[in-house]
Design brief:
Structural class: alpha+beta
CATH architecture: 2-Layer Sandwich
CATH topology: Double Stranded RNA Binding Domain
Number of strands: 5
Order of helices and strands: HEEEEEH
Largest sheet: 5 strands, antiparallel
Shape: elongated
CATH class: Alpha Beta
Distance between the termini: 26 Å
Length: 98
């Protein structure tokens, strides 16, 4: 399990790994945050994964997340990742960076 998690984390926004053969999904702005969906293929499905960023006077803050949800298409995974990121922003706000 640790190996799968490590591999998934290494693929988030790095531009490496087998899940990065497709072009990156466009970023979405939401309530002052930037959402970058980064779903990746695993076992024939796409894993929900993304990055939430916010520009601050101290630089860009970043929160990476992976969820257990999987999807049959990359587009479904992107849309679900965006909705999950919005939920994280609405529920946690700045606390996600702590």
């Amino acid at each position: 399990m640790f190996a799968k998690l490590k591999a998934a984390l290494s693929r988030l926004g790095t531009g490496t790994g087998t899940g990065d053969r497709e072009p990156p999904a466009p970023a979405v702005e939401y309530k002052g945050y930037r959402i970058r969906p980064t779903p990746y293929a695993t076992n024939g499905l796409y894993q929900t994964a993304g990055v939430i960023e916010k520009e601050t006077p101290d630089g860009v803050k970043e929160h990476q997340f992976i969820r257990a949800d999987t999807h049959h298409s990359r587009d479904e995974a992107i849309q679900f990742t965006i909705s999950k990121a919005k939920q994280i922003i609405d529920m946690q706000g700045e606390r996600m960076f702590a």
